[in-house]
């Protein structure tokens, strides 16, 4: 997937400025597709040149004007074409998994350091799971009244919740294994 597609999806959900897009990436999309503010602005500029998005200048009192982006017809067509293309399984690059395998080649102090790192990593993911679950409670109270977009956002969030729970289970297994060595 290219960053362009994630931006198109976000702008179709709600038009916005580059800053607003960057904030959305930090809060939600970024857990599935990360991008820096600079990358978002650079890609938005390219998408505007390519005619995928259009910008509207919006005046602001006592602040510089902002540019709000929305998806042009050609951008919607590009997204639909991408949506129809087959998806290949992603190659997984998991640095922690390599470190865990490498623990066979270190001493007790090295394994103790790795246990501390796995505990820290686990705590981060436990916090993320808590954030996801609370977001689900906050944003998806009434499943009966969800529109199509909300239902699809919700199913992606449920996937994130399931992934975090699976990861926490695996990390518990890793910790038990490392501690038993």
TrEMBL record:
Name under which the protein is recorded: DNA-binding transcriptional regulator, PadR family
Domain named Transcription regulator PadR C-terminal: residues: 92-179
Domain annotation Transcription regulator PadR N-terminal: ranges: 7-79
Keywords tagged on the record: DNA-binding
Pfam families in the cross-refs: PadR (PF03551), Vir_act_alpha_C (PF10400)
Native organism: Actinoplanes philippinensis
Source organism superkingdom: Bacteria
GO function term, MF aspect, one: DNA binding
Organism classification: Bacteria, Bacillati, Actinomycetota, Actinomycetes, Micromonosporales
């Amino acid at each position: 997937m290219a960053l362009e597609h994630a931006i198109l999806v976000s702008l179709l959900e709600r038009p916005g400025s580059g800053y607003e897009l960057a904030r959305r990436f930090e809060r939600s999309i970024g857990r599935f597709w990360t991008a820096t503010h600079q990358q978002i602005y650079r890609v938005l500029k390219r998408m505007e040149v390519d005619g995928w998005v259009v910008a509207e200048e919006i005046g602001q009192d006592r602040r510089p004007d902002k540019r709000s982006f929305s998806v042009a017809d050609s951008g919607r067509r590009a997204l639909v074409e991408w949506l129809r293309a087959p998806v290949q399984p992603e190659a997984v690059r998991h640095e922690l998994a390599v470190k865990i395998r490498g623990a066979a080649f270190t001493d007790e102090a090295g394994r103790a350091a790795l246990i501390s790192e796995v505990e820290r990593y686990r705590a981060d993911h436990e916090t993320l799971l808590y954030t996801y679950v609370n977001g689900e409670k906050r944003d998806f109270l009434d499943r009966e009244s969800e529109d199509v977009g909300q239902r699809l956002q919700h199913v992606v969030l449920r996937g994130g919740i399931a992934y975090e729970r699976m990861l926490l289970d695996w990390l518990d297994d890793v910790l038990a294994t490392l501690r038993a060595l």
